[in-house]
Input
Amino acid sequence: MTLKNADQMRKAELAQIHIAKTQLGLADDEYRSLLLSVTGKTSSKDLTWQGRKLLLNHFKKIGFKVKANKAGRPAPVVTGDKTSLISKIEAQLAEAQLPWAYADGMAKRICKVDRIEWCDPEQLTKIIVALIKDAKRKGRYTE
Output
């Protein structure tokens, strides 16, 4: 494991510890007491990887449930050819009263491609998902 990966893992585990603290409804003094009794440390930043694992396992024993994050969701299945996906994007833009330039901007931001026509089906699906999320946020989406 590289140093960068180890640091990312440490940050993820520390985040999970604090999510567990919140999910379990532990007050700060309760959390610190539990931390000291389980690991012998008074701060999670001082924990080794073994200490973090020990603490997370203890949290799971007392009721912490790990939830999948958005990044952990499976990618949407790409169905249809490029033409049908672009047609769907066109319909979404029309419904939102947005110009094609908006879709090109999304392609640039999301896919790092200058124009929507140059996107592959997987990239087009990402843009469709983003447009659906926007429609849901703005109350235009009905399933």
Notes: Residues 3-61 form one domain. The mean pLDDT is 85.
